[in-house]
Write a structure and sequence with these properties.
By secondary structure, the protein is an alpha/beta fold. The protein contains 17 helices and 15 strands. It is globular, with a radius of gyration of 22 Å.
């Protein structure tokens, strides 16, 4: 079995002259770790930093596990791709074109100019490097699990290079709506669709995203012969709850509870990026207090925001906007001894778990999300929290016991928060039980096995 993804299970950095490794971040890494730990599996990923490239270049055949680095038992080949090619493919095409396209966040009319075309060529070179490595490493008839929008061209290239392989591709984001996808240059749109259709199976978190892919292909007159399948990823409760029971989480939980006192808690945990819609969540909480003053002094909004892509001006500006808005709301609506919003912009996993655990209401109002595991993790961590959830998440397909909202509707979200805070304990317990069953329904091991089974 070969796993292929842009980000791998390890990342490297030099500290005081010594190269140290840490586990790669993100939900994809957690989901794929189950497969990677199998003795007959190899994970192929890219070297994403100068330190990564140094390690990859010095490892035998790029095999960082054979260079003395432990990836929880996984075999890992890290590709030392030219830094310029990586930057163009990752920053310009994957993260500045395909990602916002799939999330409905491409603003205005993008400039597909000569520079962008050079970046698109680099995206092809980047995908070709993965095709070459997989073709070299995969045993005859091997299963290949290609992950996400960074590698949309790999399936077709691999099908040509190694027709014996069994190939799947899984898109962890939503898929672009046909009217949005039509904004791509036609040759590029065709290359993306045809690239993916080289797989034996295409996976998505939601039937809606699979239907959107089919709609994009139909608009281009491309016949879809590859099965489109929905595999909605769930959470494994046991390791999550075990981590939440560790001393650092208990310490932060006690501190948060002491800080909020008897107030009810509306909690959220997100990255500081526009798609997570933190800003409108803050506005909705302020609107809740204005429309329903009985909550003033009796509820607080605890938000943990992980700094995301702070090297990109748009993300820095969005982070600053959220901070400024929280401060303005506190100035307007706060009173002595009570601050309505506590927004913490920092990477603190223990605080995140503690925040979700003490929440009475969980707020997930993403603009669009392939799945959104925070919604499921939050439900499993809390005792009986209600969930206010964006309809534009894959999780909304299953979590029908949540209060579903339009992510653009600030007043509607405020009313949903009021309804959630006003639920009786019996109503909340019943809702929470239904949500918890869904959250744990398809944990990573079973989610992954589904995809392997359809190839086998």
């Amino acid at each position: 079995m070969v796993i292929a993804s842009n980000r791998g299970p390890l990342s490297f950095r030099r500290v005081e002259g010594e190269i140290t490794s840490s586990r790669g971040g993100g939900g994809l890494v957690s989901a794929m770790a189950v497969a990677a730990a199998q003795p007959d599996a190899l994970w192929i990923c890219a070297a994403l930093s100068d330190d990564d490239r140094e390690v990859a270049a010095g490892a035998p055949g790029g095999r960082v596990d054979e260079a003395g680095f432990d990836a929880d038992g996984a075999s890992v080949r890290m590709l030392d791709i030219d830094a310029g090619v990586l930057s163009a493919a990752y920053n310009s095409i994957a993260n500045s074109t395909l990602w916002p396209l799939n999330h409905g966040l491409l603003d205005g009319l993008p400039a597909y100019d000569e520079e962008w075309r050079r970046d698109w060529t680099a995206y092809g070179e980047y995908n070709a490097a993965f095709v070459s490595a997989i073709a070299e490493e995969a045993a005859p008839g091997a299963i290949v699990l290609v992950q996400d929008y960074h590698l949309d061209l790999v399936p077709a290239g691999l099908r040509e290079a190694r027709p014996d392989l069994k190939i799947s591709h899984f898109t962890h984001t939503p898929w672009a709506k046909p009217q949005d996808f039509a904004g791509l240059p036609e040759d590029v749109a065709r290359a993306v669709i045809s690239g993916l259709l080289g797989a034996d199976s295409l996976g998505f978190h939601s039937p809606r995203w699979a239907a959107d892919f089919g709609g994009c292909a139909a608009a281009l007159g491309i016949e879809v012969t590859t099965p489109l399948r929905a595999h909605p990823l769930g959470v494994d409760p046991e390791p999550l709850l075990a981590r939440a029971g560790e001393p650092d989480v208990a310490e932060r939980r006690a501190g948060l509870r002491a800080a909020v006192g008897d107030a009810a808690v509306v909690g959220r945990v997100d990255r500081t990026e526009p798609a997570k819609n933190i800003h409108r969540g803050l506005l909705a909480f302020a609107e809740l207090l204005r429309r329903h003053p009985e909550h003033v002094g009796h509820v607080v909004h605890l938000a943990v925001a992980y700094p995301s892509r702070q090297d990109v001006a748009e993300y820095r500006d969005y982070t600053a906007l959220c901070r400024d808005t929280a401060a303005r709301i506190n100035d307007e609506l706060g009173r002595d001894g009570w601050k309505p919003i506590s927004l913490e912009v920092r990477d603190d996993y223990a605080r995140s778990l503690a925040t979700l655990a003490i929440s009475d209401v969980l707020l997930v109002n993403s603009m669009r999300d392939g799945m959104n595991l925070v919604a499921k993790e939050g439900v499993l961590l809390s005792d009986d929290a209600a969930l206010v959830l964006s309809r534009e998440t894959g999780a909304a397909d299953e979590m029908t016991a949540a209060m579903l909202v339009d992510p653009l509707d600030i007043e509607g979200t405020a009313e949903a928060l009021h309804d959630a805070l006003s639920m009786s304990r019996k109503q909340r317990a019943e809702s929470h039980a239904a949500l918890a069953r869904v959250a744990a329904a398809l944990p990573p091991r079973e989610w992954l096995q589904q995809q392997i089974d359809v190839l086998s």
